[in-house]
Structure formats: C-alpha cells, structure tokens
Write a structure and sequence with these properties.
The chain has 18 helices and ten strands. The protein is globular, with a radius of gyration of 23 Å. The strands form two sheets. Strands 2-1-3-10-4 form a five-stranded mixed sheet, with helices on both faces. The protein is an alpha/beta fold and 466 residues long. The longest helix has 19 residues.
Length: 466
C-alpha cells in the first residue's frame, strides 16, 4: 500500500513539505487536544470572548448548487468566534478541476482547514497522502456512532477521516403514464426479477418507434461501472469488483448474475435499449427518459432537481420513483449505490477542532436547514425531508407532475453499503472489465468465456501492482 501511495504523491506533484508534519492516517489523536462541544449538529460557541479563528474551506461546490452564503452565515451566527472563508475551486462545479487545484494548493503551502471531496477515490487517495486528519477521537468524545448517525459509513481502514454531506442514492425513475397504461403499480419494494418483468411489460413497438422498458447508461469507456455490478449493490458489504483487502470479488455469484441479467434483458426479452445503440448514437439517460424512449431509467438522485422537467428536457408525462431492486424478497430494502460529499479536516490545519465543528454542524443542521441537497444525516425529520424535496422540485418546470410521495419513500429508506477503499489501479480494473463486457454484449464472446476472461484479467492487474 505504501508503494501505491508513493506513486500517487509523484503523480500529483506533491512535495515532501506537504507530507511533513501530516498524520500517517493510522492515528486517532488530532493535533488539537480540545474536543468540540457534543451536540446534534454542533452546539453554539461558548461565547463571543473566544479567540477569533478563520478557516479556509476548499470546495468544488458552487453557490447555485449548495447555497453557501446562507449556510455559512447561519454557522457564523451559531459560532461567533469562527469565520469560514469559501475557496471555490471550480466556477463550473467541475470536480476534476477542483481536485487538481486542491492538490496545487496543498503543494504550495496554502492554508487548508476544511476539505470537501466528491468521490471515494479522491477521498481515499488524499487520506493516503496524509492530506486529511483523522477525526475518530472527536467522534468518540461526542459519543455517537457514524453508521447510526448517518446513512453513509465513511470508515476507511478502521479510521474516520470524514463525515458524509449530501445523500444521493440511486433509484429508478418511472414513466407513470406508461405504468398506468400497462396496469402496473409504482413499486415500493421489489426484486430484480420483478424489475425484469416490468421492463418486458413496458416494452412496445418495433424498429425506430420502439419504446424500451429500460435503458442502462453503462458501462462505457471504463466509466458508469455501477451498471456492471447491479446485483452486487443491494447489500451492506462487498459491493464492488474488489474486496476491501484488494483481492478480486468476481467470484461472488452476484457479479455473474449481473452479466446474466444484462444479456437476458437485451437479447432474450429485447426490453433494454441495445448497448450498441447507446454507443453508436451516443445516447444519454436524460433524453432517453424525458423523450419517453425508455419507461424506466436507473440513475442517481442528483436527478431530483430535474424530475419535474427543465428548459433542456421538458416533462410531458407523470414521473414516479421506485427503490433500487433487491436480489430476493427477503433482503433488506434500501441498500443502493450512493454518492456523497466527504467533509474532512485538513491535516495541516492549525484549527482542527473548529474545522471539525464546522463539518459536524454542516452535515447535520446546516445541510438539513440551509442546503440544496438531501442530507446523509439520519435524524432529518420527515417534515424537514418533505420541505427539502418540495424546495428542490419547486425549481423544476412541472413539480406537480412528480409523485412526491414515492420520491420521499425511496429517499427515506435508502442507505449505502460500506465504502471499499479504491486502489490506485482502479481505472485499469474498470477498463479491463468494460472491454470484456463489450465483447459479450456485442456478440463476439459468450458468457462463460467473458466471465473467465474477466477474472483472469483482473487477477493479472492485481498481481502486477503488488
């Protein structure tokens, strides 16, 4: 693992001075010996006489996406001695640009206090580089359990380095008009077998006018790999192609089941938009759904702000939301792929206690009252969740066409499995799996050959990176 982190340091251009004085990622004791005041969402500061502290908050999130002005002002009111200065790393909200600029800021010795990462890979890699401080001690002193307090457990190698911000679970967008015409109810708890049945029943027409029951937006070009582990994602553990210890997870029966499901829906049932069409026509999930070319589209709930239609994609039907399907009826409902923001404290911050106070407050009270996203905090009341969803939908063209009750039901019951730390060669694994999948789905290779070739390719990549 040290070898992997060292290669990351070179690739990112971080200097030795960046790592000097940083934690190794294994300890639990923050540099500051003071603990934050225990509270749900952070208590008010002890008084105006406290020393004034200024924190730099580096983020990819724009004002339009996150409502920072009102959020930071509310935090300042609750904590008069703490000033938070926003450092916007990308005017477009581009996470790649933001990550590159954050690395440059760290290498040049700029003040870093509060860090925001948009994906597990960026989060895990910067933890490995010593850029992020552990916050386990603060959490223990407050006396809460992350997996109970939040819907996303950010545990990484036995340590906590971040708290989860927004909560974007995957769900299934439904064309409710199509369901009504087919005599189908909006599912509130269903299995993959039922999903397959729905897709088949919703498929109509032939040729250019054919409407498919569903559309899968991946995998493609080594990305959108969620669509290659569909039946692995509905559980708490081992939801990815590699296990937490870095070994292959492809022998898991649920991985092969995804391959079988994709083949069945495209080849046998002809209920899923052909993969070849997705590639050749450069199809996109938004247009496939809003143009009514597919009745069901599985995607992340970042689509909440578009469900009622936008200028680019008008809504001319009614929309409902179904949860991520389960593998069997006895499985627990709710487990699904989830994206979040990882809110962290910089290892080189001189004010770790105050930085922790901000991320704790923001991921609880701050996001639930002032943000523009669904929080990962488990203690958001149904009333507050309703208000947040109503506010988000009000920004769309036809919020009245969205079945808000079905959306709230899914958001309330969704949860994430444990984070599996990404390896430095993750992209190689994705590329190899994507290439083999294409050979199968395009008809050049059968299922068994594909499955065997995938296992061999991934194992060779693991071995070469030891």
């Amino acid at each position: 693992m040290k070898k992997k982190f060292a290669s990351n340091c070179v690739a990112l251009g971080l200097t030795l001075s960046l790592l000097a004085g940083c934690t190794s990622g294994g300890g639990t004791e923050p540099a500051s010996g003071n603990s934050p005041a225990p509270s749900e969402g952070g208590a008010k500061s002890s008084g105006a006489a406290a020393e004034q502290v200024t924190l730099k908050f580096h983020t990819h999130g724009t004002e339009a996406q996150y409502n920072w002005n009102a959020t930071i002002a509310a935090f300042k009111e609750a904590h008069p001695n703490i000033n938070v200065e926003l450092v916007l790393l990308s005017e477009k909200g581009d996470t790649n640009e933001a990550t590159q600029k954050l690395d440059l800021a760290a290498a040049s010795g700029e003040q870093l206090d509060i860090l925001m990462f948009s994906d597990p890979a960026s989060y895990a890699q910067r933890v490995g580089l010593g850029m992020v401080a552990p916050i386990t001690t603060y959490i223990k002193e407050e006396g809460f359990t992350v997996s109970e307090e939040y819907k996303i457990d950010t545990l990484l190698n036995g340590e906590y380095f971040a708290l989860p911000g927004k909560f974007n679970p995957w769900y299934v967008m439904l064309n409710k008009d199509h369901l009504d015409a087919a005599g189908l109810k909006v599912p509130t708890d269903w299995t993959w077998d039922e999903f397959v049945q729905y897709a088949k029943a919703l498929t109509t027409g032939e040729g250019a006018s054919k409407r498919y029951g569903t559309y899968f937006h991946g995998p493609q070009n080594g990305g959108w790999m969620e669509f290659l582990r569909l039946t692995m994602a509905n559980r708490a553990d081992n939801t990815d192609f590699l296990k937490a210890d870095g070994t292959s997870n492809l022998d898991d029966p649920m991985f092969k089941k995804t391959l079988e499901l994709r083949l069945k829906m495209e080849r046998e049932d002809a209920s899923a938009t052909p993969y070849a069409d997705m590639l050749s026509q450069k199809l996109h999930y938004r247009t496939q759904f809003f143009n009514q070319s597919a009745s069901m589209v599985m995607i992340g709930s970042w689509m909440n702000s578009e469900l009622g239609g936008t200028e680019q994609n008008p809504l001319n039907f009614h929309v409902a939301i179904a949860p991520y399907p389960k593998n069997s009826s006895s499985d627990q409902i709710g487990y699904t792929p989830v994206t979040t923001d990882f809110m962290a404290v910089a290892a080189k911050s001189k004010h770790k206690k105050e930085a922790y106070q901000f991320i704790r407050w923001y991921t609880t009270e701050g996001l639930s009252k002032y943000g523009r996203n669904i929080p990962s905090w488990s203690k958001v009341s149904e009333g507050d969740l309703d208000k947040i969803v109503t506010s988000i939908l009000s920004g769309t063209k036809k919020p009245e066409n969205v079945d808000k009750a079905s959306l709230i039901h899914v958001l309330k019951n969704s949860k994430s499995g444990k984070i599996i730390p990404p390896v430095t060669y993750q992209a190689e694994v994705y590329k190899a799996l994507n290439e083999q999948y294409e050979l199968m789905i395009l008809g050049s290779q059968d299922l068994e050959t594909t499955f065997a070739s995938m296992k061999t390719a991934v194992q060779e990549i693991i071995d070469s990176n030891k």
